[in-house]
Amino acid sequence: MLENHIFECVDHIYDDIILNGSDELKDIIRQFEDVAGDESPYFLKKGIMLAMTLCLNQLQFQDELFEGVLQEYLEHMMEAIPEMKKTVICRIVVRELEKYIHRQVRIPYHMPLDELAYYILTIFQAEGTHLFTFITDQGKFGCDQCDEEMLDDYASDVFLDELDLKKGDTFSLWYDFGDDYIFDIQIQDIEQHPNVQTLHDIEIMAGEGFGIWEDEHSLLDMYYHDRQAFVEHIQDLGLNLDDFIFEEFDVDTANGALFDDYEFLKHAYMYDEYEM
To answer: Which domain of life is it from (predicted)?
Structure first.
């Protein structure tokens, strides 16, 4: 019920702005519509909600403040939307296991690095119980649980397109600073689309290998590089092959579970359900 009232309010303000907004705001909206096209109402209404929230938080119900916030948002989005219409095709491998565990994915070019990390960890079957950081030519960008002195900025505050990546460029995601899983990411192509691309447009295109074994990097290496030594080692530990996951990668299954698994892992980082 509350949601319906909010959307009705936003729709009413949207109609009022189009008809009665200041000349300066109307001019910005016209410029924005040229950039955003058919998707301009969606982004304009999103900006209205942002401006409403700021006014409510500051208890300042002034048209000048509201229009000023909305105008700043639209000016920012006019710069961002061209990048939001791009996708990047990446090849992602587990370092030192490149031949055995890898993925090819299509992702939005304009996405926060923390969201990218959640997706990478998801498609490689990580549980999200450890810290992570991106290692790039522009610096290190890690999860919010990392100490500030370890980073140049938090991954949640940096977008992929801000790295100014081009075809052939590489960067890495370092996961679990004790077990040291490193995912190397290579840009294979940058695609242009007529519409804005969102997180729902992410697609796993191909891959091989089930994924990583949480907290068992050395065992995973042994499994792929020396199978006999692996079998003997786990027998010494009182384990057998049934205690390990050896499922084959299936692209349809992976895509079908991708968004739900991503939401679960993201929740773990955002709400500290797990001890990092």
So the answer is: Bacteria
